[in-house]
Amino acid sequence: AQKITQTQPGMFVQEKEAVTLDCTYDTSDQSYGLFWYKQPSSGEMIFLIYQGSYDEQNATEGRYSLNFQKARKSANLVISASQLGDSAMYFCAMREGQNRGSTLGRLYFGRGTQLTVWP
Amino acid sequence: NAGVTQTPKFRILKIGQSMTLQCTQDMNHNYMYWYRQDPGMGLKLIYYSVGAGITDKGEVPNGYNVSRSTTEDFPLRLELAAPSQTSVYFCASSYGDSPGQPQHFGDGTRLSIL
């Protein structure tokens, strides 16, 4: 089973509008972390935002917020007031809290969502 | 303020050649990881290390080897390069393995096998 599922291969949004990128996850751990990374066309992976499984408040970082719904196992990224520079691939990732076999602390990634912001 | 540094950024290899992708970090992180990213896919774990002298396989280790002689360096070795190894390779590091610690990524190495 997929640990991280991103069902939107591509999304389009007009500049200054808000956009939500979907992410659902699968884990039986009680302690885990959810991350969003941005990958622009230049290729680097840029850390955007983190949500812990025990955090009661949704995480926010500037124009980024994470809509965390634990019961539904979803961790959607909301970008407010989109800018042209937000056009990039966005990856949702999870890190589990317990020792799972031999992959301590690894990140599980979704397939990504390509966001295009148009003027 | 270097963080995680990967070299080279680009490389073209012929089938059957070998090479080493270099990764070094200056944050004194114990945990280091190698991932590969194929087109249209997320990152998959190749190998990881929890400290100097300790390495272990991830989900796609075949065709690769690693070593960790120092805390700073975690090179990835390709022996007998194959077209299936054409990919973008990312090295990452973190201080520990707790869920709240983000992994810091290098800029990636784009590798083509022809």
In short:
Chain A is mainly β. Chain A is 0% helix and 49% strand.
Descriptive notes:
Chain A has no helices and 12 strands. Chain A has strands at residues 4-5, 10-14, 19-21, 24-25, 32-39, 46-52, 60-61, 64-69, 74-79, 88-96, 108-109, 113-118. In chain A, strands 2, 5, 6, 10, 11 and 12 form a 6-stranded mixed β-sheet that branches. In chain A, a hairpin with a 6-residue loop joins strand 5 (32-39) and strand 6 (46-52). Chain A is globular, with a radius of gyration of 14 Å. In chain B, the strands form 2 sheets. In chain B, strands 2, 4, 5, 6, 9, 10 and 11 form a 7-stranded mixed β-sheet that branches. In chain B, strands 1-3-8-7 form a 4-stranded antiparallel β-sheet, with no helix packed on it. Chain B is globular. Chain B is built from no helices and 11 strands. The interface between A and B is medium-sized, with 28 and 33 residues.
List keywords for this structure.
heterodimer; A: 119 residues; mainly beta; 12 strands; globular; B: 114 residues; seven-stranded mixed β-sheet; four-stranded antiparallel β-sheet; 49% strand
SSE map:
The complex is a heterodimer of chains A (119) and B (114).
Chain A: E1 4-5, E2 10-14, E3 19-21, E4 24-25, E5 32-39, E6 46-52, E7 60-61, E8 64-69, E9 74-79, E10 88-96, E11 108-109, E12 113-118
Parallel strand pairs in A: 2-12
Antiparallel strand pairs in A: 1-4, 3-9, 5-6, 5-10, 7-8, 8-9, 10-11, 10-12
Chain B: E1 4-7, E2 10-13, E3 19-25, E4 31-37, E5 43-51, E6 54-57, E7 64-66, E8 76-78, E9 87-94, E10 104-105, E11 109-113
Parallel strand pairs in B: 2-11
Antiparallel strand pairs in B: 1-3, 3-8, 4-5, 4-9, 5-6, 7-8, 9-10, 9-11
